[in-house]
Amino acid sequence: MSEKFTVGLIQMSCSLHGEDNLAKAEERIRAAAARDAQIICLQELFRSQYFCREENAELFALAEPIPGPSTEALSKLARELKVVIVAPLFERRAAGVYHNTAAVLDADGSLLGIYRKMHIPDDPSYYEKFYFTPGDLGFPNFDTRYGRIGVLVCWDQWYPEGARLASLRGANILFYPTAIGWHPSEKQPHGAAQLDAWRTIQRSHAIANGIYVAAVNRVGYEGPPQNGLEFWGSSFVAGPFGEILAEASPSGEETLVVECDPHRTEDVRRNWPFLRDRRIDAYSPLLERWLE
Predict the structure, then answer these.
(1) Mean pLDDT of 102-119
(2) What CATH number has the domain bearing residue 239?
(3) What is the pLDDT of residue 1?
(4) Is residue 262 part of a domain?
(5) pLDDT beyond 90 at 97
(6) Is the residue at 292 inside a domain?
(7) Which secondary structure element, helix H or strand E, spans residue 33, and what is its range?
(8) Catalytic (active-site) positions
(9) Which one of 19, 89, 130, 286 has the lowest number of neighbouring Cβ atoms within 10 Å?
(10) Is 128 helix (H, G, I), strand (E, B) or coil?
(11) What percent of the chain shows pLDDT beyond 90?
């Protein structure tokens, strides 16, 4: 069984300048490492503001290959600090083929692999289907120096199937780098309920799978005053019983550093053996879109 490990979640605002965002991320990774964080996760699409608020073909220029400039810079940092870095990027796979991707860099700087976002939303101000090809790598785990991790991205948060499959592969923790917030007109009537639903669904993944879950979101307002997004921060780490171990504010830049103990997963799963009691012989209808 893996030993205890410490995670760092970098919750920050983003500017229009990609190099500034990378420099800020590097500075905050250093600060997290100084607090003994070993596996450090950045928010979704951290190199830019959340460009999916509009459909604009010129914004494909923000994409980069993997390996590429961002992974090269962060690989050097991971190797220097001896930390694992989860880096969510806008991946240019080929001309006309782009993904919303998280690269996982081990503590020696090596690129362990990538996760490509599987579930792609298409909502007002979240026009991701315009930009991203759905992922084709499934729900892999990554064996890092400090523990086995699963990585999913934002909209994947709402799907129990992804969390279950990543958990069944033996992950010690699931990371969800995220960019989610309020439309200005919705915050007052629906904002509290939306935030609560987002927090609750991810806590439910922790409970149902007896696993640590870490969600890292951005903060700040991006876009025009009446048609932008206010990102609600509130990054958190939940334990295998669904308990909130640490949570950031909804508006400030923060770095959460939380120790996780895989023995806690063992204890919870012994007492709530959901994985033991699964009826895998009866679940084949889940492969259908809808049941008449």
Answers:
(1) 98
(2) 3.60.110.10
(3) 60
(4) yes
(5) yes
(6) no
(7) helix 18-34
(8) 44, 117, 154
(9) 286
(10) helix
(11) 98
